[in-house]
Amino acid sequence: MPAPSRPPTRIFVVRHGQTEGNRDGIFCGHGETRLTDLGRRQAAALGKRLAGIELHAVYTSDLSRAVETAVIALAGRGLEPRLEPALRELHYGEWELQRERAIARSHPEQFRLMRDEDPAWQPPGGETIHMVRERTHGALARIAGRHRNQNVLVVTHGTAINCMLSAVLGMAPEYTFRFAVSNCGLSEVRRRGRALTVAALNDTAHLAGLLPPAAAE
After folding, report:
1. What is the CA radius of gyration of the chain?
2. Is 16 a known active-site residue?
3. Which of 160, 157, 183, 204 is nearest to 38 (CA)?
4. What is the tens place of the pLDDT at every residue in 140-155?
5. Catalytic residue among 16, 30, 137, 157
6. Which of 68, 84, 89, 127 is catalytic?
7. Is 65 part of any domain?
8. What is the SS3 assignment for 21?
9. Which structural domain, as residue segments, surrounds residue 149?
10. In terms of pTM, does the model score above 0.85?
11. Roughly what angle, to the nearest 10 degrees, separates helices 129-146 and 158-168?
12. Which residues pair with 41 in a beta bridge?
């Protein structure tokens, strides 16, 4: 009789819940910003979505919005988030904790490059898309390697997820932002052998009635 096949490694990749910075149009990056009431409700809805899935580990960036989202979503499971700095959001350098509207006025050329999805974009003192793709994809590969044939939750950030998953998909850097990443949207990466594949992308069915109007369009 053939040996039974082992289950794939499943990595559930989630963006944190809505934050005050998201709501107010602020570049937070490595800066801290708190979850809103909506963000906490999104995290609770995520927990209900994942309730029927056995999770063996959870990793988050070391920023509080990702950690709090994981804690709310996994309440009662007894899983402690493992902090992974490589899962942080893009570092915005001098733009950190500044409003987008102000940056559009003070740094018009770099702001245009960002909006045009130009790989040459780099906020002053911050990271490029290539840098974030490299570190987030590396973190994903390490996590998948540590948890073969297990289910793992990863809670990280919007641009970090765009970078991570576009790297898995082999997308050119100028197409990094060609898919949406909603607050508490659920994506899934699977590993069989050495290959990582995207099995689900930004599923928001569990957030019905919770998405802000702009995200629901």
Report:
1. 17
2. yes
3. 183
4. 999 999 999 999 999 9
5. 16
6. 89
7. yes
8. helix
9. 9-21+36-91+129-208
10. yes
11. 70
12. none
The pLDDT value recorded for residue 131 is 97
Task: Name the token pair of 106.
Answer: 């003070």
Q: Token match 């100028």: residue?
A: 174
68 C-beta neighbours (distance < 10 Å), count:
21
C-alpha pair distances (Å), 203 with each of 12, 29, 47, 147, 159: 11, 23, 14, 23, 17
CATH number of the domain where residue 60 is located: 3.40.50.1240
Write out the two tokens for 173: 């850097």
Instruction: Please state the domain count of the chain.
Output: 1
Residue 101 token pair? 């509207």
Model confidence pLDDT, tens digit, residues 19-60: 999 999 999 999 999 999 999 999 999 999 999 999 999 999
Residue at 124 is within a domain: no
State whether residue 59 is helix, strand or coil.
strand
